[in-house]
Amino acid sequence: MKRLKAGLIIPHPEDQKWDNVWKIFRFPNLTLPTLAALFPEEEWDIEIQDELVAPLDFTRGYDLVLITVTTSVAIKAYEVARIFRQAGAQVILGGIHPSALPQEAARHADAVVIGEAESVMSRLLEDFKNNRLAKFYTMPGMADRWDRRLPRWDLLDPKGYLFRESLTATRGCNYRCKFCSIHLALGGGQYGYRKKPVAEVVAILEKIHSPLIMFWDDDLLSDPRYTRELCQALRPLGKKWMSQMSATYVAQHPEMLKLLAAGGCSAMFMGLESVDQESLTSVNKQNSAKNYETLIHRIQAVGIDVHAGFVSGLDHEDVFSFERTVEWGNRVGLCGAIWRVLTPYPGTQLFEEFRRAGRLLTTDWTAYSGEHVVFRPARMTPEELYWGHKWAKRQFYSYRSIGQRMLRRAKLQGAGELLNTFGTGVGYRAMFRIPSQERDVDVYRDRKHLPPQPIPVAYRFPYVRHSNWKHKILNHLADYLPVGA
Ligand code: B12
Ligand code: SF4
Fold first, then answer.
1. Per CATH, which fold does 1-162+455-485 belong to?
2. For site-directed labelling of 444, which of 69, 237, 374, 393 has its Cα 20 to 30 A away?
3. What is the mean pLDDT of the chain?
């Protein structure tokens, strides 16, 4: 029987390639290796194309194309689907955006998968072979087992990432923040919290040679008993790993931090969102802002780097919140921070609230990247929020702020932190393209005449050829860095 060929694609709009500057900041994709592992190898040849790594190649002669779609890439994904269909492939769309808006996605594809792929893929592939694809495949229930076969990390371009191995020990999260997509979007209101047996996680990690691993869990602390067991089991492996964790539990249970550090946790991404309690409460974030400073110091004391997530534009924030947040982050000595504009993703409670209140400014999904303002803020103009957010990022990653955090962290944790904090700060500067961003607008100085925010660019085909010698050199240099450095 003729072997079939599938292309698994993740598109990226032009102005969202914020982590493509240095390979060391390009995190490995897990969705496509996970989907690839669901294909029977005896019948299918599979390729993965991550547009962060290389321009998409539409001439690979695929029989079937699977595209994973988040909201901000949706418009580009639809264009990519059109081109692959024109080239003769059948196209399936899936992921968080098509799961939230299946009818919209169905206009651009041969079939749409709603929810997780594990329970529908074998039926879908059989239907494809028999030329009777249905328009929609809805997961009957959430997968309680996943990674029965290891994700096909081997299909990711080895030159594209510093390391390729990532996994999840758990899926879902026990909290219910109003702006979070994972509950309402994936499978219509479900996506509850599930755990992989600890022994299975250990068995997977034992097969991975890289000393550095990414856990793409939504909140590795949603079940602290599980986390404890996991850390104890990971300890003998001696691997370093990073994950996402909510600040809610560890703020009250600092003893967990020592276990995390001993289990190999070297960095955590933590959605602090705002240092203003009313803002946190307004989006049902369970964190307590008054505990943040102590919490950060406790985490630093056990040697774990905190990368905080801030969202700008919550309803209780005004134009002066940017300054307050930057000052706070510098004072407590955050290692790094990711700043995003509050974005009401379709399928979330926040989207419904804003839609009902007539506060949505656009449903041009490319603007839903966290870099644009797509709703009417409560205590600012959209322009103040747009430029204020840019101002905050620029301030936080100015050399002055990086220096301030270097000194602060060195005082708390020793001289080694000088280099770590400098490297992280400079890396984020490059990643967010701080030096080359649009016109330098100071939201405070120019408040009375702020220019409108630019319109995002979804796609430009054919690709514009440009010389990227600078990136090539940096990526080449990154090859000489020891993994996990
Ligand atoms: C890892 C991750 C990232 C990484 C991505 C690394 C990489 N190179 O891929 C980083 C940190 C870079 C990132 C960035 C962003 N992310 Co993100 N991210 C995640 C996270 C935590 C896990 C995704 C994952 O790998 N899960 C494991 C895999 C196996 O599961 P999965 O992707 O859901 O896939 C399953 C199903 O969805 C389905 N499926 C998915 N695609 C397809 C396709 C087909 C054809 C089929 C059949 C099935 C299918 O089957 C899979 C197996 O069951 C999710 C949260 C979440 N739980 O989804 C947020 C999430 C996807 N991110 C989100 C956001 C908002 C962003 C950013 C826009 C943030 C920002 N403002 O900068 C950026 C932009 C990224 C982009 N351009 O798409 C939102 C998306 C909301 C939305 N409606 O679009 C999520 C849901 C977080 C949230 N709490 O709301 N992210
Ligand atoms: S803690 Fe994080 S993953 Fe959980 S609901 Fe809130 S934003 Fe989503």
1. Rossmann fold (3.40.50)
2. 374
3. 91
